[in-house]
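Justification of computing resources. Each target in the renewal requires a structure prediction run like the one illustrated here; the chain below, 110 residues long, is used simply to show the kind of job we budget for.
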Amino acid sequence: MFLAAGGGRVDIDNFRHRGWTPALAATGVAHRRIYDLRHTYATWSLAAGVDIFTLARRMGTSLQMIDRIYGHLASGADDYERELLDAFDNGRSGRNGRCVGAEIEEEESS
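Resulting structure tokens:
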């Protein structure tokens, strides 16, 4: 994702000792692993309502991994899904979904 100053890969040990650890100390944040940012992103994304399909794509992983590791954080997902479907069914959504070509055909009156 990020290149080193001279191009190529970032030396993670160098980054951790020269950048990450001093930055945490300077801001008064308790030490944490760089990898913990991944978990923070996932949990905040789910809390904000990002669906697991989008989250899996963004994180470059499978739906199964997202469900296994973070599924417990998606509480209320069933209720949210029902609300979306009810709004769509009742024509209150103001849109035709997020899929290309998801147009609703008007029923013809007999």
